[in-house]
């Protein structure tokens, strides 16, 4: 047996999001979001399921925070529903919405659980979508106003803020593939939305720092995958470069270098002419925390039929799969070490010595400092069942977490200063277009009664937190 131990200040947490857990979709003054519209559109969600009630966190948040305490979490990463705070996306705040987040934050602090607040996890107010949504630059400014409003209201208690969760998915699944809200199928709309979401991060960061009641950290959460070739052919290896640019560099370069590789793509050239304004990239170039969501790798082969990247993802044989993707623990090591080497080693800034910078040090002349790096999501959907004795023996999830934590620890041994690990998710919840089929929780939800039961993985995770490590 090997034993690994994490640094004593390592942060252990769980993540969730407003639309996936709150419910109360039209209660207490909340306005409709694009996900409310999307789930009420026939054919969009498996089995016609919705997040109208989901796991009713809006009403059961005290019970859920008590469960977080029982697991021994240091932190809870949640998102605020923009349309609960500003039903029209702008204008007058909904006091009942602010009151809910007061209650949630106060309950977390009472239980000594650090709130990690994410301002946007895909649920744009429908009223803003009606005015163009993220394809309109105005939405970026509206987001900065929303961020400032919440900062004024909660920054006396909330110190860690994320502007966005997986902007790439919000932009591309929402506007390019259409599998997510608002369900558009326009490649250029995807790139436009991505640019405005990124711009909104910079605008919000500036507004938040100007109005914070105490020093705060402003981060962003990005979904990053290592990209591998389906074969060693030249065309597949070139496809990897294009897919890596489209998936990873397109997200990392603006925040960490103040540049963008978007002009590598034909659509990017159109984008640059049409909506990128002078100073936009400089505004994006600010980050105190880089949150990385890691689930799996991407394996691609050349295929000119596919737009933009002329590459298509394939599912290689030989590894274990969940109901959604390949299980590839080494990928979390690859992502962490790639980010550290490519963006923070002095070589990137043309500086020496070759030893990477440490958190807080300046990376280059822009004044951007090396951000804290955290795993803000990692998890596996397992079709959990309740055994006769009431236990949920989710060994696969325990093995998944163990194998990924081993790789996180390996990256830390290689010099990457990972500050924390947030498991996706605290409890089973609404998995977007897939509805309630995929169960990701450390806590099982009986969707008939909404009763919560800690799974074996939750008990195992609690022991990892208690021991700050584990044997495997
Ligand atoms: C994401 C989202 C979560 C998902 C989770 C499982 O990272 O896609 O943040 O909302 O539910 O990743 O797919």
Question: How is this structure best described in words?
Answer:
The protein is an alpha/beta fold and 472 residues long. The chain has one domain (3-471): Glycosidases (TIM Barrel, Alpha-Beta Barrel). The chain is 39% helix and 15% strand. An eight-stranded parallel beta barrel has the order 2-3-4-5-6-8-11-12, surrounded by five helices. The chain has a three-stranded mixed beta sheet with strand order 7-9-10, covered by helices on one side. The chain has a two-stranded antiparallel sheet with strand order 1-15. The structure holds D-gluconic acid. D-gluconic acid is lined by residues 17, 20, 165-166, 169, 223, 293, 377, 424, 431, 440.
Any key phrases for this structure?
single chain, 472 residues, alpha/beta, TIM Barrel, eight-stranded parallel β-barrel, 15 helices, 39% helix, globular, binds D-gluconic acid
The CATH topology is what?
TIM Barrel
What structural class do you assign from the helix and strand content?
A: alpha/beta
Which percent band covers the strand fraction? 15-25%
- Biggest sheet: strands side by side, in what order? 2-3-4-5-6-8-11-12
Q: Tell me, what's the shape?
A: globular
| Structural domain tally | 1
Q: For the CA atoms, what is the radius of gyration?
A: 21 Å
Please outline the helices and strands.
Layout: E1 3-5, E2 11-15, H1 18-21, H2 34-39, H3 57-71, E3 75-79, H4 82-85, H5 95-110, E4 114-120, H6 126-129, H7 137-154, E5 160-165, H8 167-175, H9 187-211, E6 217-223, E7 227-229, H10 234-257, H11 266-274, H12 280-284, E8 289-293, E9 298-302, E10 311-314, H13 330-344, E11 372-377, H14 395-413, E12 418-424, E13 443-445, E14 452-454, H15 456-467, E15 469-471
Parallel strand pairs: 2-3, 2-12, 3-4, 4-5, 5-6, 6-8, 7-9, 8-11, 11-12
Antiparallel strand pairs: 1-15, 9-10, 13-14
The protein binds D-gluconic acid.
D-gluconic acid (GCO) is lined by residues 17, 20, 165-166, 169, 223, 293, 377, 424, 431, 440.
């Amino acid at each position: 047996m090997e034993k690994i131990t994490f640094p004593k200040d390592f942060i252990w947490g769980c993540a969730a999001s407003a639309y996936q857990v709150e419910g109360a979709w039209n209660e207490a003054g909340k306005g409709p979001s694009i996900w409310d519209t999307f789930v009420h559109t026939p054919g969009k969600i498996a089995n016609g399921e919705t997040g109208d009630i989901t796991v009713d966190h809006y009403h059961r948040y005290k019970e859920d925070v008590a469960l977080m305490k029982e697991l021994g979490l240091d932190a809870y990463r949640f998102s605020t529903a923009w349309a609960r705070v500003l039903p029209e996306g702008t204008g007058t705040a909904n006091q009942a919405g602010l009151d809910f987040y007061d209650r949630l934050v106060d309950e977390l602090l009472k239980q000594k659980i650090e709130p990690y607040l994410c301002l946007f996890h895909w649920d744009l107010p429908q009223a803003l979508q009606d005015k163009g949504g993220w394809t309109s630059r105005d939405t970026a400014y509206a987001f900065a106003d929303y961020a400032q409003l919440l900062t004024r209201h909660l920054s006396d208690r909330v110190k860690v803020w994320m502007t966005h969760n997986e902007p790439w998915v919000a932009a591309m699944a929402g506007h390019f593939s259409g599998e997510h809200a608002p369900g558009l199928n326009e490649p250029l709309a995807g790139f436009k939305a991505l640019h405005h979401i990124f711009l909104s991060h910079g605008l919000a960061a500036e507004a938040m720092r100007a109005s914070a009641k105490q020093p705060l950290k402003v981060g962003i959460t990005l979904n990053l995958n290592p990209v591998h070739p389906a074969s060693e052919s030249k065309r597949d290896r070139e496809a990897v470069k294009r897919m890596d640019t489209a998936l990873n560099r397109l997200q990392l370069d603006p925040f960490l270098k103040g540049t963008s590789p978007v002009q590598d793509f034909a659509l990017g050239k159109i984008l640059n002419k049409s909506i990128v304004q002078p100073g936009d990239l400089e505004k994006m170039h600010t980050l105190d925390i880089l949150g990385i969501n890691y689930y799996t790798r991407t394996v691609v082969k050349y295929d000119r039929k596919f737009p933009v990247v002329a590459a298509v993802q394939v599912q290689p044989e030989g590894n274990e799969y969940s109901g959604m993707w390949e299980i590839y623990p080494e990928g979390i090591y690859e992502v962490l070490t790639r980010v550290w080497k490519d963006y923070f080693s002095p070589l990137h800034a043309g500086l020496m010595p070759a030893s990477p910078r440490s958190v807080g040090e300046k990376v280059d002349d822009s004044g951007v400092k090396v951000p804290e790096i955290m795993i803000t999501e990692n998890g596996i959907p397992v079709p959990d069942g309740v055994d006769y004795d009431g236990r949920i023996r989710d060994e696969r999830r325990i093995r998944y977490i163990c194998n990924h934590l081993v790789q996180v620890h390996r990256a830390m041994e290689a010099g990457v200063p990972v500050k924390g690990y947030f498991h996706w998710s605290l409890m089973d919840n609404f998995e977007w277009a897939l509805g309630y089929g995929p169960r990701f929780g450390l806590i099982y939800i009986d969707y008939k009664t909404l009763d919560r039961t800690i799974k074996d993985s939750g008990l195992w995770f609690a022991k990892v937190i208690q021991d700050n490590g584990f044997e495997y």
